[in-house]
Amino acid sequence: MKITPIKTKVFNENEKLLEFILKYVKKIPDNSILVVTSKIVALGEGRTAVCKNEEEKTKLIKKESDFALETKQVWLTIKDNMVMANAGIDESNANGKIILLPKDSFKSAEIIRKKIIQKFKLKNFGVLITDSRVFPLRAGIVGVALGYAGFKGVRDYRGTHDIFGRVLKFSRTDVADSLATSAVFCMGEGKEQQPLALITNAPVEFVEKINKKELIIEIKDDLYLPLFGSIIKR
After folding, report:
1. pTM above 0.90?
2. Nearest to 224 by CA among 138, 112, 115, 102
């Protein structure tokens, strides 16, 4: 698998995203995945806000969240079935504004995919929209998939055998987030100006239609729920 980050100019609010992509991506081979950072998708949608104080920022976070819990550092929130800080709103590289998450990253990924398939006459092609997250009890950020199109986001090993013939009951690989982490690592999180990347030769299964819910686990079924519940009670 090869990841090629693409350096661009600064993307401006309400700029046309597809024209921007095609300006810097002149050739796309079949069986590849275009990675687009969520920030420029949101800017293309005009998903920005100006908050004069912390009170206005808090109201915005709550409005953008399905659930919000105040902590001494951030608001821990759930949005679009993902845990994140401050509903994903971002003040970095925002030129004084606050950038929200895209309205519907899966829909945006599919729109980009269809137009690029038509443009380059591709058979197998995927689009991945990324953001950044932190893992509990780990320092630093990693990439995460907000939305994707054109490939399966999960590789399911359940029902297959390991090298010793044991039947696997729970094993699944989070393909979408694994690709996002790899891409974001190459694209950077500072002033690199690399909001796009092209992944080639990735070991994915390309599909015409994806299952948007394949990565979702209900809160009551989450592996870590008993651990964090017991810590909170102490």
Report:
1. yes
2. 138
